[in-house]
Specification:
65% of the residues lie in helices and 13% in strands. By secondary structure, it is α+β, with helices and mostly antiparallel strands. β1, α7 and β2 form a beta-alpha-beta unit. α2 packs across α3. The radius of gyration is 20 Å and the shape is elongated. The N and C termini lie far apart (46 Å). The N terminus is likely disordered.
Amino acid sequence: MPVADTSQLISGVAERYASSLFDLAEQAGSVAAVEADLNRFQALMDESEDLRRLVASPVFSAAEQRGAIAAIADKAQFSGLVGNFLRVVAGNRRLFAMPGMIRAFHQIAAAHRNEVTAEVTSARALTAEQENELKSALKGVTGKDVTVVVTVDPTVLGGLIVKIGSRQIDTSLRTKLSTLKLALKEVG
């Protein structure tokens, strides 16, 4: 199966599971608690090579994955909803899509709150005032509350690269210099 088809498959699986979890969380009035538990599980995956291997590897049986995930869920004291969700995902051999499920859940929850997330790349960290100004400007463009996730990348040199959904605004000095370099090559 080509890579594009695999990522589409994972994306579809992740969205279906995340949508189901969101529906259950909304009915229980625990969307914020579920988001917090999913963030904790993501942090555990980020910190543990063994957990990442358990999640990604097809070598482990469903029973092994389910047992390990149950132990982790109990130890981390995840809410009943997230603990049960992790056990179902493991039992259905879908742990490989867990990072996508977490991203999809956050997107669904943000859309429900009428929020969007802007991924911002800057040459240096933004001050609180700059971040607030950026949020305000982006709210004017999108008409929604904006959560800003800032990544510092010194190779940008200056300016910002802002991604909201499929839209990207690139005002970085690096891009401007590259455009100027191409224009000078065409002239010369």
